[in-house]
Structure formats: structure tokens, C-alpha cells
Design a protein that fits this description.
2 copies of one chain form a homodimer.
Chain A (H helix, E strand, L loop, with lengths): L2 E4 L7 H11 L3 E5 H5 L5 H11 L2 E8 L7 H21 L3 E5 L10 H17 L3 E5 L10 H11 L4 E6 H5 L16 E6 L9 H7 L11 H11 L5 E3 L11 H23 L15 E8 L4 H10 L2 E6 L4 E6 L2 E6 L9 E9 L2 H10 L17 E4 L5 E6 L13 E3 L9 E11 L4 H11 L8 E5 L2 E9 L6 E6 L9 E7 L2 H10 L9 H11 L3 H10 L2 E5 L2 E7 L6 E9 L10 H22 L13
Parallel strand pairs in A: 1-2, 1-8, 2-3, 3-4, 4-5, 5-6, 6-7, 7-8, 9-12, 13-15, 17-20, 21-24
Antiparallel strand pairs in A: 9-13, 10-11, 10-16, 11-12, 14-15, 17-21, 18-19, 19-20, 22-23, 23-24
Helix pairs in contact in A: 1-3, 1-10, 3-4, 4-5, 5-6, 9-10, 10-13, 15-16
Chain lengths: 621, 621
Amino acid sequence: MRTSIATVCLSGSLEDKMTAAAAAGFDGIEVFEPDLVASDLSPEEVRSRAGRLGLTLDLYQPFRDFEGVTDDLLAANLRRAEARFAVMQRLGVDTVLVCSNVGTATVDSDDVSAHQLRRLGDLAAAYDVRIAFEALAWGRFVDDYRRAARIVALADHPAVGTCLDSFHILSRGHDPAGIEEIPAEKIFFVQLADAPRLAMDVLSWSRHHRLFPGEGDFDLTGFVAHLLRAGYAGPLSLEVFNDTFRQTDTARTAAHAFRSLVWLQDQAARRLDAGPLTRIAEAAPPVGVDFVEVKAEDTGEVEATLDQLGLTFRGQHRTKPVRLWSGGPARMVLNEQHAREVEPVVAGLGLVVPDAAATERRAHDLGVQPVHRRSQVDEARLAGFLAPDGLEVYLVDAPGPDAEPTWVEEFEHGLPRDTADSFTGVDHVNLVHSWAEHDEAVLFWTAAAGFDAPAATQVASPQGLVRSQVVRTPDGRVRLPLNVAPAVSRDYPEHVALHCTDIWAVASRAAGRGMAFLPVPDNYYDDLAARFGLDPGLLDRLRSAQLLYDRDGAGEFLHFYTRRVGRVFFEVVQRLDGYDGYGADNAPVRLASQARVDRVERTARESAAGPAAGARGRPRT
Amino acid sequence: MRTSIATVCLSGSLEDKMTAAAAAGFDGIEVFEPDLVASDLSPEEVRSRAGRLGLTLDLYQPFRDFEGVTDDLLAANLRRAEARFAVMQRLGVDTVLVCSNVGTATVDSDDVSAHQLRRLGDLAAAYDVRIAFEALAWGRFVDDYRRAARIVALADHPAVGTCLDSFHILSRGHDPAGIEEIPAEKIFFVQLADAPRLAMDVLSWSRHHRLFPGEGDFDLTGFVAHLLRAGYAGPLSLEVFNDTFRQTDTARTAAHAFRSLVWLQDQAARRLDAGPLTRIAEAAPPVGVDFVEVKAEDTGEVEATLDQLGLTFRGQHRTKPVRLWSGGPARMVLNEQHAREVEPVVAGLGLVVPDAAATERRAHDLGVQPVHRRSQVDEARLAGFLAPDGLEVYLVDAPGPDAEPTWVEEFEHGLPRDTADSFTGVDHVNLVHSWAEHDEAVLFWTAAAGFDAPAATQVASPQGLVRSQVVRTPDGRVRLPLNVAPAVSRDYPEHVALHCTDIWAVASRAAGRGMAFLPVPDNYYDDLAARFGLDPGLLDRLRSAQLLYDRDGAGEFLHFYTRRVGRVFFEVVQRLDGYDGYGADNAPVRLASQARVDRVERTARESAAGPAAGARGRPRT
């Protein structure tokens, strides 16, 4: 179906918005009146620019507080409308959104509203304009799309139809099935927005917290199905008021918005198994983590930590400054290529997928940016794409059971694979986003990469609350907690969690090799005793090994953390009896401990930063 | 009364919080359990540190989900409690907050809850601990403070009393007058929080949007009055869960919090005209703006703009690199002292007050930081203090009618005062804060400087929504719109608005002197015609003079803007027939135009920034 986006969704000037909408792939836009008023382009220039960009101007919006009024006010409102119709004629837009009256309605009557809309229809027809009447969720009298449709039917005027907005319908809990009873030719326009289920006043919810399809809690797939059964064939247009999207990069948000609409059409097409909807390639979700890549100018300190944790050095790449470590099937790639002045950072993630070519096609269909990995003819070629935060995601076809992928053979002069150790793989990779990237990231992982996004949580850090949204594959084999760092924190670290079957042994070996664990305060163990009534013997063992503990129904969770190196640290975990969480109750303790360590290290760095610092060419630590 | 603050209000480690609370002036703290658990100080060390800092540990909190449960759960809950009592004993805290059960209550009975609290009281007594039972606004069965008090009365145990939290009571709309019916000896603790009136679920409202007293919509003064009439003599403690305060500088937030509590006590003392409350100096609100100070390494470009606007150069300060311009009673001070690499910025504000010494005392009592203005013996000494965003605020006693303040005589080699011009003063000064400073700034202007804070608004900018809170003196003679810039925008400018009685003449003179007005798009005037049905003649005049227009009941508003110089620009306004706003509907047009100009200027600057740039020693523009 044709796609459109309201200019109010995006940041920047009207020109920026038009350029970005066209570049993202939209067929048209809704012109939000304040964007036109604030623009220094004349309506004729906007029209001609849209033409050059290949965009249609699908709707002019909004026209407010028209119907349900006294006669004298009606006359003034018709005058107001006529001035707008004149602007629309200059723009070449043929449909105007008329919202149900919020501010000035005093007459609660379908007949009066219908009569007044008929008068407006007459005036509109003279300008070749159509009226799309919409029930706002907070309209004074008309706040239900079924009533708006009834008034439109009563108005019985060819230039008067209705506009359906998923937010106004679903936020009120109105049954969208009634859409199928509206004659198709009377549905002049459709606006789509998702939203999280929030218990707050619907006006603030609508103005600040709308989301793109697939990011909230509304069943938009079902909504689109009703539209198609009703026979609607016009554009699907996004109208998303969101404080974050209004601030983020225009082109990027437009691409993100377009992705949501492509995904939604594909979802609806699958449910309906027909229809004029865009379909995209299907791809099964990942079945495992192939590798995690850490990049740095000098990866030495990271490798020292891996060594202390008990991973095995598997070799240096035969053509690139890249090294491989593994612990059982958990593989860490350490990359010093093009990494001048880069502190250790999680730079890439290899995912094992049932069909890499299919996943690559799906990502392409969703407008995800591909990445190219340099390789020689005799090396494995990995398909890949970029996540919104710049993480490189590579796709690897599943090798046989217990087999290693062929790219491992490109590493030389290392030790053989250690199959006896207790590491069983990468348990999860914790990624960190800014607030501006978060919604886009969640949609990316779910729509493009086949992850699920269960309910989010919040954990307290010394610098404020951290929003945490886990995305995981349906079978739980790949888990990515996505954290939104507090706005004030810089260099918030990410981490890689390795799963093992004997954490006591791993911790003891690491301690024996001199690893500096992230310290766990004594008070934590006292609290643990009070919360879980743990056996004193276990408590003592936990305390002396500096392990953290959590419980979840029958399941238990043991874990510990390394100190950070640059922007990365490691966690080792052991899940017992089906524990399914991430130790969220322990996160505040971990974050407070990291803040203490960071402060001590910062002080040490600063006191060392005299004129002689760096004289021995030592890297910053 | 004794003052206290819950550690959860502040960012940082437990040590940081304790240090900051003591430095701000609090008598004690509530220990928020997760802060202790995450700390590497033992309970004994916390106790001894508090002693050294002169802080009492007033409350241990929270203990959740205790009463209204089945017998087997009660046994487990008593075991949980006992472990906490042991920690409290080590801390030396004698009161624990027990919240009404949210998660595990299954028995809705006052008798059962009372019986279970009595059991808890017996256990507590053995540890010299008291139970302060609090009704959470979202408690499963107990969600009203009157029911909590009834249960406490039924429990009839010396170690069992109640805790009253203003948020839980006022958010539910419960009448706080019932507090006076609770026996004083049964009110074990009081927690205070303000909040904006929000229509949202009370749990999210409480966890994220609480504010310090004086910053929200609750009548905390009345609340405190009820407490005193009840005979309560314990501490007044702040418990404010707020996402922003959890992120901002610990010491600064503590000082801000303490200020709110001092202010609240003073307000309550005035209402009661008695009581054990802290009183502070009274001071009448400002009656005018004495001057606005702009600071820059080179103020030349700002002065050129003032000249084009028609202000008069009044002279150079006889001992400092400071220059004075005036237009009628509007005085601008241009300061190049200690301004290396400073772009033009609003740095100071002189306020005319009825009694400068009284205002200075009040600010001092509220812990506001004073500033010192260098002066010689024969120069005026201005008292002053710092606003939260670093603005220097100076206080000047009102001179006689039409007289200029004596400090004006320190300026030499300028022109005499022009009394014939149409400028009538500074209309308003628009200041910009980050989101982190905003609540503190509003409290500062209202509590310390005698301003009112009417309802806030939001305006759309190309970079996102701008929150705007006007503070104004009760008579409207001093007005300061405080804007919160979108998080992504840098160098968001501030402006000074001058009022005149003939804006057409001022605009025409400025145009004649070659001033570059901020351009107003043509579409704006088309929209104005549609919105207000303006007379075509007036519309043409507005368009050709590039003036903006607004209407407000009978009143009309004419205004225009200069381009920005550094972080400052100017507005000229004329209010007609009692117009009382700031042209908020025009703000999006202004912001979009500024963004266009900024972009052009940035491009020009960048293309000029070749190797030869700066070769002639021209300042950055």
C-alpha cells in the first residue's frame, strides 16, 4: 500500500523532513500546518519540491474546533476554513484533516455536526478539497470513531469522509472491528501510531508517547486487517507525536519510521494471507551466538582478562591484526584493525542463523544498512549489517553440531580448542544505547533480526535509573539486554556474559591467576541472608568467592563480574534449574561497585597524569 | 523542626549522600536499604561516619509486604524482619518504615493486620526498634492513612506507630485534616514530597515525578499545619523519588532540597503564626529590572545591535572594561572583564527591590550562594547572589521615581540619558536551563526572590519541544520566562525583551540603521490572516516591517527579534490593551527561523575556516 508520514513525526525544517521522507522510501507526506507556517518555502515551492522528490502531499492537518458550534461561530469557522482551503490549493493537497471539536463545541448533536460538516463540504468542494473528519480521543462530544462515521454518513456529502487514527481508537479501548462497517469510499485517510500501554491522561499520552508500529502495545496488525476488509485502499500514514523522535536525526528517524511501516505491512499480509500489502523476505531467528568482537587500539588488557577467566588463545588471523580466544563454544574476536585511539568496545556480534542469505535479504528489505567485512578469496565471507548503535552484526550459517565455523581456520599459531572446560557459550551480551537510539534499536532487533522484546525493567544506578529492555530469540538461545544509560553518564560500559557449568571452578581459577574481581560489598551478603534465608555455608562460600546470587521460582543464578577494561567488562554466569533472568536485583550493587572502582581509577589516572606520564609509551588504562 | 532527607533522593554513593546532606544543613537522614546494601561501608562505619558528620540516622526504609498475610507467610516475614532489625541495631537506627502490603496480602482485615503488627512490635522491642506503619497509595488493602492509623490504634503496642507521607495522602485526594485526630505519640515519622498534578497511575507518578516542597501542586504548608496541630514534634523528612534528582550533582541537589524544607517551614510558620518551625527573613518581591548584563570577550557586536535598536551609549566605567547603554529606563551593561573566549551571554541581572538588605538576608537564610562585585570605596556596593544556572543577580534599592540608580554615575564619556525615546523598560528576560537545573531554578526564583510561577507551557522547535515556565513578580513588573532547551541542542540562546510604546518607529529606525532582523516567513502572515481575520492594511504593514503579532482577549502584542550574537539576542515588544502573554504561538516560527539563520551562518563560518581564517584577528562570529 502507499506509505506516508506526517511531518510532525520528524525533527528539522520542512525541507529536511521532505528530503528525509523521500530518501527513506515514503510515497507521500502529511503536511503539518505549523511546519508550513514556520517554513520560508511558499506553498508553491513546497509543491514543486515534493514533485521533484517524488512525494505526494497526502493530507493537510489539522483543522480544529469546527463543528458542534453555534451559528455565529460556524460563520467564523467557515471563514477560517476557507483561508486554509486557499493554502491547500496552492500546495496541491486535496484532503484536510478536520478533528472533532475540543475547545468550542456547545451542541452535542449528530444532526448539527452533520449539517455543519455538510456546509464545510460545500465550501471545500469549491476548492476541490475533501474533508476527513476524525474523532479525537478527547473530543468534547465526538470521541469515538463510530460516532464520527455516523456523522459523516448523516452529512451525506461527497466531499465529507472520515479519517481513522489507530491511536484515538485503540487508546480508548474501542473495538476496531467496527471499521469494517464503514463504507470504503468514506474512509478518506488512515493514520497509524503505536503506543505503550500507559495509565495516564490520553491527551498527554498521545502528544508525547506515541511510537512507530511494532514498538508499543497496540495490535496494529489487526487494525490494518480491519481496514483491508473494509476495502480501504488509500495510504497508510504514520502520525507519531514523540518527544524523542522530534529531537533525533531527521534522516535516521525517517528510515526508522519507514522500517516500522514495512514490517507492519508484512505482518498484516501474513495474517491476511493476501491483500495489496508489501511483503518482505522471511527469515528464521538466530539460534546462537557465533562470536563477540571487541575492538581496541590495544586489546592486550582484554586478552589478559580472558586468560584469567580461563579462555584459550586460539591464534592470530593470518592476514589481519585480529586474535581469537575461545572457551568451549564461546568465541571472542579481538580486533586491532583501524582502531587508533579506540578504547576496548563491543564492536561486533556474530549470529548463527538457519539461513544467512534469508536473514540478509530480510534486513535489506527493511532498509538496514549492510556492512562489508574485508576478506580474501580463500577466507569466509560473512554477510552482515549495522545495528542502530553502530554494532556490526554478522550472519553465519549454522555449522554441524559441535563443529566450529570455517572462519576459525583462518587463525594460526594458537592452541587447540579446549573441549573439556565448563564454558557452554555466550549467555548474553549487554548493549548500551542512548535514550535517542533505544526505540529504534528495539524495532531493529525484533523486526529485522527475529528477536522478541518481553517487558522492560528499570534498575537504580548511582547516576540515576537505567532502563533495561531484554531482546531474546524465542528459544532464549540469544539474549541481548539493551540498557539505556542515564543521560548524564559518559562511557557507560557494555558487557559479555559467558555461561559455564561450574562457576566455582571458573572463579577459583580466575582468582588463582590474579584476576581482580569486581568487589562485592559485605552488606550485600547480609542482605542476601535476610532475603532468601540462605544456608550459612553457601553464604560463606559466596562471600569468599565474591559471587552474586539470585533466585527465581525454582531456579538459581550464580554470577560474578570482572573489572572494566575501556568500555567492556565480562560476566560469568551459571543458571541452575531453569533460572530465566539476569540477576536484575543485583544490578544496583554491581553499578555502585563499578562507580567506586571507576572513581578510584580516575583519581589514580589523574594523579599519574603529570608531565612524565606516558613517557614509557604505556597505553591509557 | 528537625530536618531529614531520604538517601534515595540523591545521586551517588551512600558516603556522597551523607556528606552532601550534612553540608546542606540537614539534621539527619533516612537510610534507604538498597543504598546500604550497595555500599562498601559496614553498618558500624555508616553509624560512625554519621556521628562525625553530625547527622542522625532517623529511619531505616523500606520494609515491604509484611501484614495482611496467612500464618505461614507471617512466620517467614518475621524472620525477614528480624534480620533487618539486626542491621538496624548495628546502624543505631531506632525506627523502621513498614509499608502496607502490596504484593502478598490476602487478608483484608484491620484486626489481622493489627495483630500481625503487634507480633512485629514485640519482635522489634527486643531490638529497641519502633515500627512506623505507612499506607501506600497503592497498598493492596491498606491505602489510606486513616486506615493505617486505625490499625496502629488496634495494635496498641508501644513500638508500633504510623508514618505519614504527604504524597500517599494528597495524591489520593484524602483529606489531611484527619491527621489531627491521630495521637501525637503514634506519629512516629513524617515524609514530605510535593508533586505536579498528573493524571497517571499513582505508582509511576510516585516513583518518577515527586518534587521537593514548593515545586509541585500539593498544599504542603497546610499539611505541616495539620501535623503541628496534631502535636507532632519529630523530624520533617524529604522522600522524593525523581528521575532528574537521581542524576544531578549530589551536593547541589541536597542544597536545593534543604532550601525547599526551610522555605516550607517558613510558609507554615507564617500561616500558623507560631510553632517550632524555622522562620527566615521576609522580603518584598522585586519591583523592576535595574539592568541586564551581557558578558563577552568582545561586546562590540552586541553594542552595534543596541545602537541599531536605538539605545544610547551612556559611557565606559571609570575603572573597569564595562560599558553602559540605555533606552529609557532599560539599562544594558556590557562587560568585558574576565571574559576570555566568552561569547556574548546574559551574565547578570539587576533587580530593583524595596529593601535590598532584606532580600539579601532571605537569600542567605535559604542557603543561596552570594556573589561579590568588585568595587572601589567610592563606587556603589551591590549585594548579590547566584541563581542555579550561574546568573549573577544583583539587588538595588528602588531609587526615586524616574531617577537613575547611583551606580550609573560611575560611567564616563557617554551621552546623556535620552528621556524622549519610546522604550519603557525591560519587558522580560528569557533564560535557558538544562532539564537538570529547571526545578531548582523555579524554586530559587519563587522562594528566594519572591516570584510567582504560573502554569507552564511547551512550544515546538525544529529540535524538539521546549518547556517554558514563566516566573513573574505578582505585579508583573519583572518577568522571566525560563526555557528548558531540548537535550540535543547546544548553545541554545537567551534573550532580552525591551518594551516600547511605538514599535513601528523602533523597527523603522532599526531598519534604517541597517539592522538584520530575524526573518519572518511569508506563510506566517498568510496564517495570521486566517487565524485572526486581520485588517489587510495592518497585515501588509506587519509583513513589510517583519513584525509578529498576537492577540489575547482584548489585548494585542507586537514584537520583533534581532539575530543572535553569540548566545544572546534581543526582542522588542509592545503590549496593547493589557496583553499579558509572550507571543507563545509565534515561538515555533521564531525558532524555525533562528535554526535557518544558524545553519546558514554555520556554513559560512565553516567555509571561511580555511588556513587563513582568523589571520586578521577578527573575533569568531
